[in-house]
Write a structure and sequence with these properties.
The strands form three sheets. This protein has a four-stranded antiparallel sheet. The protein has three helices and eight strands, in the order αββββββαββα. By secondary structure, the protein is of the alpha+beta class. Helix content is 34%, strand content 31%. It starts with a helix and ends with a helix. Strand 4 and strand 5 form a beta hairpin.
């Protein structure tokens, strides 16, 4: 797939995820639209999984594809609000991302939802 095609298809998929995040959190930021696997650019996957990561500014709820590439995120918030958003996404039928690391921008980050659930 050519890069331009991957970007266009990925943007459509990530925008759908962004809208789901917006519905759950009142805000949704588009993150990645493409991923590079074996030297080939590909659009992010259609499927959505949710997880929580920690940033310098607090907790961030994310929607990722099956490979852990982040498609949409909430604003950084406190633990309580992050858990509310995470639970809303889960209650809407979006499964938990069960792996321990995700890819956001150029960084790999650990998922922490299982550590902060009380």
């Amino acid at each position: 797939m050519q890069y331009f095609q991957a970007v266009q298809q990925g943007k459509q998929r990530a925008t759908k995820s962004q809208m789901k995040m917006f519905e759950a959190a009142g805000f949704g930021m588009l993150t990645l639209t493409t991923k590079k696997i074996n030297g080939q650019f590909m659009p992010v996957g259609e499927e959505d999984f949710t997880a929580v990561i920690e940033s310098q500014d607090g907790y961030v709820v994310i929607l990722v594809d099956g490979d852990g590439f982040t498609k949409a995120q909430s604003k950084a918030t406190n633990k309580e609000n992050a858990l509310k958003i995470y639970k809303k996404l889960r209650d809407s039928g979006i499964p938990e991302f069960s792996e321990t690391k995700i890819q956001i921008w150029s960084e790999s980050r650990p998922t922490i939802q299982n550590k902060i659930l009380d």
